[in-house]
Amino acid sequence: MLKRVLVKHVLGATEAMDTVLVEGWVRSRRDAKDFSFLDFTDGSCLTGLQVIVPGELPDYSSWINQCGTGASVRIQGSLIPSQGQGQRWELQAASVEVIGKADATYPLQKKRHSPEFMREIAHLRPRSNLFGSVFRVRSRLAQAVHRFFTERDFYYIHTPIITASDCEGAGELFRVTTLDPSKKIDSSADFFGKPTYLTVSGQLAAETFACALSNVYTFGPTFRAENSNTTRHASEFWMIEPEMAFCDLGGDMDLAEAFVKDLIRDTLETSAEEMAFFDRFVDKGLLERLQWVLDRSFERVAYHDAVEILLQSGQSFEYPLQHGLNLQSEHERYLTETHFKCPITVYNYPKAIKPFYMRANDDGETVAAMDVLVPGIGEIVGGSQREERLEVLESHLKAHDLSAEDYSWYVDLRRFGSVPHSGFGMGFERMLMFLTGVSNIRDVIPFARTPGHADF
Ligand code: 4AD
Ligand code: MG
After folding, report:
1. Which of 60, 221, 278, 444 would be a feasible disulfide site paired with 282, CB 3.0-4.6 Å?
2. Is 115 a member of any domain?
3. DSSP-assigned letters across all residues of 176-233
4. Are residues 79 and 132 in the same domain?
């Protein structure tokens, strides 16, 4: 039996072929006098295969109307140099078999649909040029993440999805329980015998492994019950979290900046076809902006200096700023897009706005935290050097009203062979938005979960 060939390989053929078998979907059909053109795809690449269906095929008129937009078909034919403009090869069909019909109610027509409409048909949108491209790039980006860390001798750790600790201390946890929600909850009678949640970050578990295997990373789903309906927040998103022993904040920033650049370089190289498409149809100037980031070093600026720049800017922000407050995304974007005109890393944030695990600086006011900010997005990476001094960590736990007992395993790392260590988290979808120019996080996740939405 003839083996199916993916369209991406058919299009990359170096010579004509007598018999080729392809299977996929019809994007559109155009009928001429005694033949039809099919724009055919199997999703293996952006470009479709042009298929000529000759009118003299047996019973042509009885089945050709079933080869409409959305129908799945198996086509056997010969690959010949295309007579038309715009493609090198075309497939001259010798047989066409309709596998699954799609009638006129098929919602994905050839015209452009709004992103809102596409979210309503999230089960069909990967068949479109845009979403097919986004998810091919997403797949390659995940592979690039693993390559980056493997090349640098990092071990990949699977940290738990169900946890009992709130790493970020922001109280944005989804509860995991098997108890009847209509009754008063007695956690000791619950499945795990105590309150449990979906993880907001794998960091604390990654730290334990860094303090054993030196360089590790986790890459998995994280969950935040944060009621913010923005284009950059999802309730379920993927995070990449490296953690390094014997590493201070400087080394942490070095790695984060190298990581961002490496992922840009990799994507431009491995997804050139999709990237050209995004540049043309999604975000004009995308390629130029990414190249611009690649060619520049990241500026580093201390938090207080960044706030001073914003206060002096004369800009009126929706959220007024003062020293000690969190930077909002409008502030972050002003810094990177308007002031510095390059990606920047802001470091040494006020202790009061950061989680308990960050290392206290000698000034008594700030912690060794850092955020990487990029144009168009704002924060893409957040990280820190971790507090490795036992007494200081214990005092942080107290100050944050966290029980030393719950975190005893974490504190133990400071009791036995403690080392300076650092790490960060990169939002995988934020990076994907930055790379593709897609402006809503809902459109780079296969099935987005956001407040009020858990469809599909
Ligand atoms: O800054 P965050 O909250 O840092 C942490 O969770 C640390 N424990 C990471 C670490 O040091 N290991 O989150 C890290 C990154 C952010 O910079 C952002 O890119 C992304 O995760 N992120 C989100 N992405 C999508 N939707 C959300 N709701 C996100 N919240 C954070
Ligand atoms: Mg952050």
Report:
1. 278
2. no
3. E--S-TTSPP-GGGSTTSS-EEE-S-SHHHHHHHHHHHSEEEEEEEEE-------SS-
4. no
Closest C-alpha to 376, from 434, 298, 331 = 434
Q: Is 201 in the pocket of ligand 1 (CB under 6 A)?
A: yes
Q: Based on the fold, state whether residues 279 and 192 are members of the same structural domain.
A: yes
- pTM summary value: 0.96
The answer as to whether 112 is a domain residue is no
**C-beta separation of 91 from 77 below 8 A:** yes
Ligand 1 near 234 CB (within 6 A): yes
| 338 shares its domain with 407 | yes
Assess contact for 75 and 42: CB atoms under 8 A: no
Local mean pLDDT, 10-residue blocks, the chain (456 residues): 94 95 97 95 97 96 95 98 90 97 91 92 96 98 98 98 89 92 90 95 98 98 94 97 98 98 98 98 95 92 97 93 94 94 95 96 97 94 98 96 92 97 98 97 98 95
Please give the residue range of the domain that contains residue 427.
Answer: 125-443
Pick the atom of ligand 1 nearest to 372's CA.
17
Cα of 165 to ligand 1 centre, how many Å? 16
Report d(CA 135, CA 428) in Å as an integer.
13
Query: What's the gap between Cα 272 and its chain centre?
Result: 18
Question: Domain count of the chain?
Answer: 2
Q: What is the pLDDT of residue 168?
A: 85
Same domain, 274 and 387: yes
Instruction: Kindly state whether residues 55 and 160 are assigned to the same domain.
Output: no
Tell whether ligand 1 has an atom less than 6 A from the beta carbon of residue 244: no
* Structure token pair of residue 255: 């790695």
Judge if 366 and 264 occupy the same domain: yes
User: Which stretch of DSSP H or E encloses residue 66?
Assistant: none
Q: Tell me what pLDDT residue 445 has.
A: 98
Residue 85 and residue 162 share a domain: no
